[in-house]
Amino acid sequence: MKGKSALAIFVSKATGFLSRKLGTGAGTQLPGRIALRIDPQLARKLSGELEYGTVLITGTNGKTTTANILANILRISGYKPIHNRSGANLMHGVTTALSSSASLSGKLEGNIGIFEIDEATLPQAVVQLTPRLVVITNLFRDQLDRYGELESLAAKMNKGLREISQGDLLLNADDPLVATLGEGTSLNISYFGISDDRAGGGNLQHAADSKNCRSCGEPLAFHRVYYAHMGNYHCEYCGVSRPELTFSANMLEIKGIQETRLTMEGCGSPLRLTLKIPGFYNVYNALAAAGAACILRLDRDTIVKGIEEYSTVFGRAEWIEAEGRKIFLVLSKNPAGFNEVIRTISSDGKPDKVLLMALNDRVADGTDVSWIWDVDFENLVPHTGGIIATGIRAEDMALRMKYAGAPTHSIAIEKKFDRALKRALQAVPPGGVIYALTTYTATLELRKVMTRLGYVKGYWEE
Fold first, then answer.
1. What is the CATH number of domain 316-452?
2. pLDDT score of 24
3. Are 115 and 129 spatial neighbours (Cβ–Cβ below 8 Å)?
4. Which residues of 342-376 are buried (b: 16+ CB within 10 A; e: fewer)?
5. Can you give the pLDDT at residue 143?
6. Between 3.40.1190.10, 3.40.50.1000, 3.30.950.10, 3.40.309.10, what CATH number should domain 47-308 receive?
7. Neighbour tally for 153: CB within 10 Å
8. What does DSSP say about strands 259-265 and 271-275: parallel, antiparallel, or unpaired?
């Protein structure tokens, strides 16, 4: 590449290096932001050089984990994926990932792009990156101050999908809103979901979002609810029902916060998978990644190996050793996701858990934190022995836990992350566990403290 493209790549690389060297950040967003100002078409030009094209993964929850599992399968398969593994999912982050893997002439180190994409950014991303496959995990009420209501967001996403002239679309059939996407497109549509009726229950959570039929507006009837509003449903008024599953998960065995086992159908003969990441939501993430791998025609044995050897990325049910204790760090950023985290960590039945709860209200978190009142913290309180609230909105979290029934004496407020972490470590005996439940920027800030203390590497180094 010549002229402004080569300059944009050089400046992006230099900015990322300086950002990490000076300790001002991981250099995942700013380099791409500057590069796009120099050459607004840089992402399009670089992605066009990828031999095997690009895969975009979007949705409210699970896109980082899904993208990372798929990237792991591809690496084992012999591909060289380029992807924004840190979760920087705007076009700035994608451009940073591409430019950091490119020479000044535009030659890329990788041959396939795996990019996690912010839901609202999808229309822009499909135009710039021309994906061969788009995966949509779910749509939840998340950051209303930035996205608006779900129907509006879904309409914008579907409009973006119509810009793709050919390719594949993999949708979560269990999410009633996601299952309707792709209408009016020329894409090959496949669906993934759960077929094990032993899982889940019969009633929607109070924080469930997509409860009504998108076709006629009437309430949906759920035969089974697996997670939030995701399940096996139909409309008794117009006859709409969950699409037939292309890839399905059954014979689920959820082993607390340690692992989950399942059998996947739809990729030839059944695949028996063991996930080393906990939670019902990760069944969907692994199923989406495995389904995408099947669409990409990857080897079945490699798919199994890629999933079973995958260990979580920063902040997504991550285990961290610190001062003879363990920290279980879980990103928790909206009602549906938080409720599933609560269900997961409460499943062992053990009381007196020490919680480090970090609530921020930066733009990337959503400036409206009223969503915490829709989380079922009442189900968590019986399993807690102490709560340290931290972050910009620590007082709001402490108040919410008080109203959830936590005794006042068990709640401490420490707005500084380093002091909050120290306090949590002091509250847990050697060999014990701290459960750190954190919003997006709080995850980054808390992990930055742990990097400085030597508990973990910076995520750009891993």
1. 3.90.190.20
2. 60
3. yes
4. bbbbbbeeeeebbbbbbbbbeebbbeebebbebbb
5. 53
6. 3.40.1190.10
7. 21
8. antiparallel
